[in-house]
Amino acid sequence: MANRPALHVSDPNSGGLRVAPFRFEVTPPLGHPCCGGLIKPVEVVDDALEAVGVVLLGAGDPVVLCAVDWTGLLNGAHLAWRTALASAAGTTADRVAVQCVHQHNAPFACLETERIVSAEGDLPHVLDVDFFNRCIEQLRTAVTQALSKARPVSHVGWGQGKIAGVASNRRVDRDAAGRVATMRGSACRDPKLTELPEGLIDPFCRTLVFFDGEKKVAALHYYATHPMSYYADGRVTSDFAGLARKQRQRDEPDCLHLYFTGCAGNIAAGKYNDGTTAVRPVLTKRMYDGLVASEAGLTRVPVKTWTWHMAEILPPPRSSLRADDLARQVADKAGSVPDRVRAAYRLAWLRRVGQKVPITLSCLHVGGARLLHLPGEAFIEYQLRAQQLPPDAFVCTAAYGDGGPWYIPVKEEYPNEGYEVSVAFCEPGIDDLLTAGMKRILSG
Predict the structure, then answer these.
(1) What is the pTM of this model?
(2) Which of 64, 186, 230, 233 has the highest count of CB atoms within 10 angstroms of its CB?
């Protein structure tokens, strides 16, 4: 297919709008790989991981929005979730958005990568496929049950609240030429780095609420930061973002609360987090306060319809990625396990692009709000850019959809190098493609 985003818009229908909330557990079993086999596997479950979503009914074919407490869903695994959700909801996969929250003590699911490493015989698994398939069956059941309990939607409301002391830019330590010197990660104990400014972030949690009269039915929260306080210890947790959502859920058991991670490819808590256990509840409280603040002064309007807009892009892979070289690296038994596994993820991406399977971007237009769904670990610049594209619209951005391309820097950052650029699977041209697709679906 051509690399020009193709736009598809649903036909609006003024029938009665309804929302069907659903949630189900997706906690991996003991021994399951975490973060795609790149860190310690599951040893303990501190708190459950969940998939939380809504089916929107009454304006054309149903729309499904879902947030999953996993590191990522990549390539065919992401499509498998979208296809299963679509089947259960009575719609098509292009009307389904599935985003991961991106906690790291959690599954990082790529079916093709699992096939590649399994064929070697001496590499650890990156995914338990039987567990993955059980989750698919659970989601079918959860959605089917939710549809029978769908509730009317009369209004939507949107608002934002500032979150202080959580997000910080990871790429603030630079040399005179602007190149990244040292990354400030999810946790940081280097005073030189923690004393540097926050850098470019989006400090606001943005929230959209579906109402049935005066009753809240579902609240969708959006904030951009890597959601880890500490990890790689084999302890499964939804971490501070998930814990804050769960606390909000306990506050309002009759309203489903969803949390979406925004464009956090270059954003983490490193300035405010030293990685000790004592900091997690501090970050959780700051997140929770932001969720509450985002609902304090909602702009509330009646709604009779919504529209769904989507675009497809097929971004160019890095020219340095060659399938034969990657296959040899995967098979090199003298190589390190992490390097061989990363090569398998890159090879899976090349095969996907070779099959011309596009990435889907989507956006729900409802009232004066736009809910934008993007792939991978997109940089914060995309989120800030999206907020400026539609005039007079309230834009909520969720990244970490299809994780196939891994990190997605803006093109200006490729010459500045750094970790995120080194593990980006696409050429800088992905910026123009992604931005053009965003423009079309946000303003359509």
Answers:
(1) 0.95
(2) 64
